[in-house]
Specification:
By secondary structure, the protein is mainly α. It has one domain. The protein contains three helices and no strands. Helix 2 packs across helix 3. The radius of gyration is 7 Å and the shape is globular.
Length: 28
């Protein structure tokens, strides 16, 4: 799942605030 977060720039920006938030919003 982490790979997907780094794969998407939009999620990457939110990853700075918290990886858990990115997972909760996109969760893909």
């Amino acid at each position: 799942m982490i790979k997907v977060i780094y794969s998407r720039p939009s999620v990457k920006g939110r990853e700075i605030f918290g990886k858990q938030e990115a997972f909760g919003k996109y969760g893909d």
